[in-house]
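Pilot study result, target chain (660 residues):
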Amino acid sequence: MNTPLRVLLVEDSEDDAQLLLREIKRGGYDVEFERVETTDAMKTALSRQMWDAIICDYSLPHFGAPQALAVLKESEHDLPFIIVSGTIGEESAVSALKAGAHDFIVKGSMARLIPAIQRELKEAGVRHERRQRERELEAIALVSATMRSANTLDEMLPRLLDQTMELIGTESGSIWLYDAANDSMNLVRQRSGEGLITPVNPGEVIPRLVVRSGEAIVSHEFRSDMRVPEYSRQQVPENIGGVCVPLNSNENVIGALCINVPLPREITQDEVRILNALAEIGGNTIQRMRLHEQTVKQLQRLDALRAIDLVISSTRDLQVTLNLVLDQIIKQLRVDAASILLTRPASGRLEFVAGEGFYSRNIESSDTRIGEGYAGQAVLERRTVRVPDLRNEHERFMRRGLLADEEFVSYFGVPLIGKGEVKGVLEIFHRSELNPDQEWLSFLETLGGQTAIAIENASLFQDLQRSNFELAMAYDATIEGWSHALDLRDKDTEGHTLRVTEMAIKIARAMGVEEDQLIHMRRGGLLHDIGKMAVPDNILLKPEPLTEEEWEIMRQHPQLAYDWLVAIPFLKYALEIPYSHHEKWNGTGYPHGLRGELIPLAARIFTVADVWDALTNDRPYRKAWPPSQAIAYIREKSGTYFDPKVVEVFLELNSHTFHV
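Predicted structure:
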């Protein structure tokens, strides 16, 4: 069945109105109409429903086309306005067209009516589409600006949800993120207006369906939507509909954005299109912030490990070492309390030696036998013991009497194993439920290992140097992991970091740089582009040349790298390359425009290797250059972009390979 053409007739003659309607119906339209002949009647008709077109007589006894055009303008509706009149002078017709009329037809030429209606409906559709696109762009710009102003994911998520709900004009919505490791949906933000219950709350079913399908679910009413399993529909309030759209990042669905509206309101297709666009931006921003926060967290944890390492290296006082370990554990894992028990093989007991975060000192006298309770179980089974809720394990917790007033809920017991022997147990206590991810658990075990090293240091100080070497290797492996993470983010430069770093080390060694400095060069090389973690995907991964505005953002990555790394003593001497590898010999580089030997030597060496690798490998915006062309370019820029001495050594090293 065809949708009727809704026509508002501004006409005082019933006969003329019927003539117009017959003509429209002869053109193949079903017509829904209303006839008005006064200002007030027209205003009421415009406010009561949406019309497809207005057909207006030029002159009525108390009203006319000029006044009707003024009413239409005041109503802010953009509708085709066609004047049909028995007589109209040329001057009046021109004046009406200037005032906003789209066409005028003399009643004796009614054959022009249908073509005029068809043309104006088409042009009105084009205008509507253009306005909708403008609205989408404004919405995207607004939400993007709001998200960019957030520094953390916790700041960004509520802003994304609030801005989206305000744009749609509703008070209920939620954001869900998918945890691939546990195959679970996590409700991370939710808003509900007064009297509204977020319908996606029960059982995560709707956002999970969206994540699995990768497509939006638009529903008139969720409770009656047969796509939702019956058991979940029964938990959804009546008269609530809306849309749930996927949050995408690099073609992966990472969650869902759900917006809910009460009936009779329905989400329009235009709104769905806007929401999909916002969800795409939101998904990429969420993933970028996740990577950024993960990097910051890893840097903080690396700093914590380094702090523990320093105290292990600088003191033989076990108590001082363990107190610092506990302080870092509570800060980095964000738990309420922690304690360390040491094994006493002679007595077969676990003895309390250090603790932090407890309300009372009762824990200090809570020794237990090896093999008894959760701590004893960790020693006996040589594995981490996890108790999600101590309230459900009241009888099995051997020290419940001593901890009755602590109100602990979650517990972890980590065996401290050194040289194949269990030295003690690291205990974690939290006053609410803990649902840690694998990274948290891995770091907990790493801290357990650090604690075991600290304990071992008290009796076997000579073995500590070997432990320090292993830690340094772990730090370097972590740095390589960050470098690899950046390569995984930007597939087009995968392998670039390791290649450039190895070549830079080769050049530096040929120039007589000492071996202890090469260690810092290697770390700086691996981290040279770490600042790009904060560069949005649409700029970093853009296949076309960047705009000047995009280059301004891209040029911030050396400063971002410096800001992230400068506070880590371990990386103090590795900053030269991340901070200065885009400086040029003639002073035209960035971020500070350093010239000549004011640029650190490590950065000057790395720049040549970096440019060589970039030119001789494919990029999204160009194919790799032949080696001969790249060599010619480096020769040409020697003394302007590059240190001539570095170029000379580079060319000597590659003379046999590329016959330069």
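One observation from the pilot: Residues 150-287 form a domain with the Beta-Lactamase fold (CATH 3.30.450.40). A full batch analysis is planned for the follow-on phase.
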